[in-house]
Design brief:
This protein is mostly helical. The protein has one domain: TerB-like (Orthogonal Bundle), CATH 1.10.3680. It is built from eight helices and no strands. Helix 1 runs antiparallel to helix 2 and helix 5 runs antiparallel to helix 6. The chain is globular. The two termini are 18 Å apart. The mean pLDDT is 81.
Length: 146
């Protein structure tokens, strides 16, 4: 997994990532866990709360801004990764969310195969984070729902 702190992201890149995450969350209604993840990411990288993330949505709604930023492959893959994490934040990545993420990936020049690999990486990371729990059957049940 890419540590976003190591990418040396510009303010514009952080804003575009937060906007992409929000666009995924809005697909099926913003869940408090998704909102908390986006706010935490924004605050961690820009040092303050996001006053109005909705104002950032044009960074991912138009073709040009996202394409310009996604010229950096690490950034493009980070965008897909954070969007998948946002989709899973409420416990389930819905098909409409996944379709939206695939569209963002395509616009960012991330192949559908690589987007699927990133989805699997994120899912595996989430399952691994549960592996310390004492009841392996419960972990397996949670893994099935992801």
């Amino acid at each position: 997994m890419t540590d976003t702190n190591k990418l040396n992201l510009s303010t514009e890149q952080v804003q575009a990532l937060a906007a992409a995450m929000l666009s995924v969350a809005r697909v099926d209604g913003v869940h408090p866990a998704e909102e908390a993840l986006i706010a935490s990411f924004h605050q961690e990288h820009l040092g303050g709360p996001a006053s109005d993330l909705n104002a950032l949505l044009p960074l991912v709604e138009g073709e040009q801004p996202l394409a310009k930023l996604a010229a950096d492959q690490d950034f493009a893959e980070t965008l897909v990764r954070l969007c998948v994490m946002t989709g899973y934040a409420d416990g389930h990545l819905s098909e409409p969310e996944w379709s939206h993420i695939q569209a963002l990936a395509q616009r960012s020049q991330v192949s559908s195969e690589r987007a699927q690999e990133i989805r699997t990486e994120v899912k595996d990371l989430l399952v691994a984070s549960l592996s310390h729990l004492p009841d392996p059957e419960s972990v397996a049940n949670v893994a099935k729902t992801l």
